[in-house]
Amino acid sequence: MSPAVDAVAAMSSLLAVAVAALMSAIITWTSRPLLQRYALARPNARSSHRIPTPQGAGIAVITATLLVASAWAAWANVAIPPALVIATIVIALVGFADDIVSLPVLARLALQAACVGAVVFTAPETARIVPALPLPLERGLILLAGVWFVNLVNFMDGLDLMTVAEVVPVTAALLLLGLLGDLSWPAALIATALCGAMLGFAPFNRPVAKMFLGDVGSLPIGLLLGWCLLELAWQGQPAAALLLPAYYLVDSTITLFRRIARREQFWSAHRSHFYQRATDNGFTVRRVIGDVFALNLLLAVLAVVTVRASSTSVTWLALGAGAIAIGFVLRRFSRPQAS
């Protein structure tokens, strides 16, 4: 793109962030009384909150994301995959149903797999990460990874501002990569709108939160974010696609394997994620979120560096630095704080 086009793209991106943020905030604010009445999250032994809090603000976040991204795509003559939009709406409805009346685990997983599969298996055959693998095998593995990613975003949404601290740095980095020409423009549009929508939600979710996303928000956010990262991997940047969500991936995956090893019901709600243990160990919510946000900013910088450097040695150094930083934060979260 020419410098003039770059300037227009940058300005339109900032405008999209602002519009999505404003739309998300307005819908969240106006829907709060209704959600207070019909979608109240009551605290239990596994909760991080202490007072009943309305959930379902994800309705505002997803509505703002899809509307702004679709309008911007129409203006820019860019095609967002229809399967992605439909799957996002369907998985949001699944999440909303689970917020109101808890769905059986197998039914929930089957519906999630159908939504992820609709996105993965409608992608062009030329979209590959490991061309040496047979296409059906690669798509099957991506399907499994996609279902896990959707669920881990849901699992990690257990503390005020946690999802904001994760999604905003990741989507901001994806927007930058889109402006630099290293990410497909449809994925950049989705990432930009999602970044704005999360910023609009943030004031309602800061400690002590007045609103929660609910499954109606965390599940489709996982789907949209996962697709954007998959697009980045399809552009030949799998290391960057791993670095951006690396904290969520490591915290959730280690926690999952620990629970399986202890023969616990790993699909049920719990308080054994590292960020949850941190609050039990004396960390304040603000400190946990600050540490996670700073870590995600570092991972975002490392991801952008790997893309722009186009060097194998730089990529391995960035992956190593990211692993060390994540290990440092998880170790801190695991240790009790001095009183």
Keywords:
13 helices; two-stranded antiparallel ribbon; disordered N terminus; 2 strands; mainly alpha; globular; 339 residues
Detailed description of the structure:
It contains 13 helices and two strands; from the N terminus they run H-E-E-H-H-H-H-H-H-H-H-H-H-H-H. Helix 1 (3-38) packs antiparallel against helix 2 (58-76), helix 2 runs antiparallel to helix 3 (82-100) and helix 4 packs across helix 5. It is globular and about 50 Å long. It has 339 residues and is mainly α.
Number of β-strand runs: 2
Structural class determined from secondary elements? mainly alpha
> How much of the residues is beta strand, in percent?
under 5%
Give me the strand/helix succession. Answer: HEEHHHHHHHHHHHH
Distance from N terminus to C terminus (CA atoms, Å) equals 56 Å
In the predicted model, the low-confidence regions spanning at least 5 consecutive residues are: 1-5
C-alpha-based Rg, rounded: 19 Å
Largest sheet: 2 strands, antiparallel
**Mean pLDDT across residues:** 92
* Broad shape: globular
Helix content: over 70%
Strand order of the largest sheet: 1-2
The total of helices stands at 13
